[in-house]
Amino acid sequence: MKETRTVEIRTAALEQDSNELVVTGTPVVFDTATQINDPMGQYTEIINRGALQGVDLNDTRLLYNHDLSRIPLAKAPKTMQLRIDDKGLHMRATLPDTEEGRSVYTAVSRGDLTGMSFSFTCDPAGSRYDVKTQTRSISRIKKIFECSIVPFPAYQTTSVEARNQMDEAVDHEKARQAAKIKLNQLLVRRV
């Protein structure tokens, strides 16, 4: 199931002396706890260092505000370079010399657009939800579909995949607690 995350990170206009419209940013940040506001409740999410090992970055697009109906602003590896280090995923993109490319570039340069976001899928065993701490840890991302320059850098609603995983973890914890209570009741009866 495809998920979308928004990271509060500044993009910076580079090479202002050249004719190219270049922006840089960090759409994925490792080992940083972030509060996710979901319609079903709030939880903490952490993308672990190493979660992008072996990730499919081919054909990753740069969009404005996740708008798939518009022409992409850039595409890896030709007009967008993606680099992974111990802090996260970094991108450098040359925007097209079009009305939209110039508008986005100008808004980033002025500081009107300061956020980046990305949509992704997790490896089937790539995330874990801890009921007690209400924390989802992502250890393996399978594919990053797109990075977006966004006006509101706040995490968005999680997908059904994440919600189902959390519901299963809560149900498992409830069943474990119920079993503990029954075991204690049996032990009390024996005494």
TrEMBL record:
Highest taxon of source: Bacteria
InterPro entries named among the record's database cross-references: Peptidase_S78_dom, Prohead_protease
Statement: the UniProt record of this protein carries the keyword Protease: yes
Domain named Prohead serine protease: residues: 11-168
GO molecular function: peptidase activity
Organism, scientific name: Salicibibacter kimchii
One Pfam family in the UniProt entry: Peptidase_S78
Alphabetically ordered keywords of this record: Hydrolase, Protease, Viral release from host cell
Biological process, per Gene Ontology: proteolysis
Official protein name in the record: HK97 family phage prohead protease
